[in-house]
Structure formats: structure tokens, C-alpha cells
Specification:
The structure is a single chain. The chain has a single domain, classed as 5'-nuclease (Rossmann fold, 3-Layer(aba) Sandwich). The two termini are 15 Å apart. The longest helix is centred in the first third of the chain and has 14 residues. By secondary structure, the protein is an alpha/beta fold. It contains seven helices and five strands; from the N terminus they run βααβααβαβαβα.
Length: 137
């Protein structure tokens, strides 16, 4: 199962005692393939460095990119479906380009796409609670 995970999900799953650690642990247990683009990796690194440290960012990004259950995909077409926060489009575009099974986010601007009838291209967007149920963890 291929999944694009928004930055907040990664950020919350890093600390060992986080209530979102299940996400990182499920990925390490190969329950899903973490799909990223260069743009997403750059944002992950910037946010982890800002919130934790440069060393933490280096470790998390290296762990992700050297794992055999990650996939790098570049979106060559920009759909610009998230009008309220265009910065979120990197996740949507990556999910479309990779034909991801899920785009996982609690971001209201991304989740609002679920309210668009007959969204094209269709994107399976779920929040973290739903994704946890899907994984059965």
C-alpha cells in the first residue's frame, strides 16, 4: 500500500513517546510504502529542523530515504486543487503522480477535497484516525 503522509503526520510520529508513534512504527514494520517527492522531503527537513534540531532532521530524512519501503515520485503536472493553501498541493500532486492508495492528512485544506463531488483526478484522502484503522494498529 502506497501512502503520501503530510508533514504534520511525520512530525508527530518522530518522538518515541508520541501518541502518533504508531505511524512511524507501522512504516518501519513495512505496513505501507511512504511516498515522497523532493518538494516533500525538503519541507520535512525544514520543519523537523525547526521543531527539533538539524541532527534530528538528518536522521529522520536519512532513515526514510535509505529504507526499502519508501518511493520517490515527482509530480510533473501541478493540479492546483488546494486553492485555500497552495503549499499543500505538493502532497496532492505526489499522491496523484504516484497513484497512492492514500493521502493521509488532518489538514483541513486537504480534507476539504473530500467534499468535492466527482473530484478529478480522484484522490483517496483519509485522516490519521481512519488510516490507523486501515492499518489495524
Amino acid at each position: 500500500m502506497k501512502c503520501v503522509i503530510d508533514t504534520n503526520g511525520l512530525l508527530r510520529s518522530v518522538p518515541r513517546r508520541s501518541e502518533f508513534r504508531w505511524l512511524y512504527d507501522a512504516w518501519k514494520s513495512k505496513k505501507f510504502i511512504w511516498v515522497v517527492s523532493n518538494e516533500i522531503i525538503t519541507e520535512y527537513a525544514e520543519v523537523i529542523e525547526r521543531e527539533y534540531s538539524l541532527q534530528a532532521a538528518d536522521i529522520v530524512i536519512e532513515t526514510l530515504l535509505t529504507s526499502n519501503n519508501h518511493q520517490r515520485t515527482e509530480a510533473f503536472f501541478k493540479w492546483q486543487l488546494v486553492e485555500s493553501d497552495p503549499d499543500d498541493n505538493k502532497f496532492v500532486d505526489c499522491a496523484i503522480a504516484s497513484n497512492a492508495d492514500y493521502l493521509v492528512s488532518d489538514d483541513k485544506d486537504i480534507l476539504q477535497l473530500n467534499r468535492i463531488p466527482s473530484l478529478f483526478p480522484p484522490i483517496p484522502i483519509v485522516d490519521f484516525d481512519t488510516f490507523r484503522e486501515v492499518l489495524g494498529v
